[in-house]
Amino acid sequence: MRVLVSGGAGYIGSHTVLSLVASGHDVVVVDDFSNSKPTVMGRVESLSGTHVPVHAIDLTDAEKTERLFAHERFDAVVHFAGLKAVGESVAKPLAYYRNNLDSTLSLLEAMRRHDVPRLVFSSSATVYGEKAPVPYREDYDFLSSSSPYGQTKVMIERIMADAAAATDGLKVALLRYFNPVGAHPSGQIGEDPQGIPNNLMPFLAQVAVGKRDKLVVFGDDYPTADGTCERDYLHVEDLAAGHVAALQHLDAMAEPVRAFNLGTGTGTSVLQMLHAFERAVGRELPYEVGPRRAGDLAAFWADPTRAQTELGWRAEKTIDDMCADTWRWQSANPQGFPGA
Ligand code: UD1
């Protein structure tokens, strides 16, 4: 298939581009580089051994989006592009709703006008909100999220479901990621957050490489085995493979839209993750326990049964693989991707 990957220069997008190319698909990337560097694409091309055309377009610009679809033919779209920082979304909700919803609407309108029949969407376990019982299952009906970022995922899932119901032939897979971490085993591409990382794994990697003094563990008085929060971490390579599996499953799907959890089904605590990272680095890392972070849930993980039975997909890499690959990437690229 000829696949348009929006946000293909980002962390998960770039790994998915490699998996798509390795599975024999032709990939075209659209990215506005607002949270990624163009130098990512050179690494993706050298790792894949293929030229990957890139369009530097902001998808909220409906005219430019339309022009892209008028000039190129796509069999499918994998939609990653979007703003994704939870804290920033609380401070700037309108920017998040404007960007994430407008870009999705431009894309869906262009897909409808040009009869593109397949869509895979980058959703998140955040759509299960604060009340869903764990493990999270896709048939839980009361989706809501505590942050504007998360609400954009809930709304986009709904918009896509309505569009699929109204468009003959359109099939949509909504992929609800748990906590993606790790990097390509080559150490050439990985997560490159701008500024202070919000998430655990890139923060740990920056402590290990000496860019940050110490990890602050956000609370150790949760009702979990060691008192720190538990999450379902999965390797970004497994996650990328999940996108390829979903894309290839769409035509066989009975319903126009279907959600799939992409997770391992196992929780790992913050302290367990710290110690796994210490094993990868080969020394102890400094940390202290601080107060809880507002909005954090004690523990959640996926029920990944649906993805296993329907997509034939299963997360295979271990926590130690995730840490070793993150460390290979971070130690080889202490400043992330080069700027130009
Ligand atoms: C967060 C978002 C989630 C989003 C996901 C994207 C929140 C509340 N949730 O998930 O909506 O989809 O990122 O990857 O922000 N931790 C520390 N110290 C740190 C950083 C994190 O102790 O410096 C702890 C957190 O308290 C949490 C765990 O590590 O228990 C994982 O945190 P993080 O990587 O930010 O992911 P989530 O909060 O699960």
UniProtKB/TrEMBL annotation:
Gene3D superfamilies: NAD(P)-binding Rossmann-like Domain, UDP-galactose 4-epimerase, domain 1. Its cofactor is NAD(+). Pathway: Carbohydrate metabolism; galactose metabolism. It holds the Pfam family Epimerase. GO terms for cellular component: cytosol. Belongs to the NAD(P)-dependent epimerase/dehydratase family. This is UDP-glucose 4-epimerase. It comes from Krasilnikoviella flava.
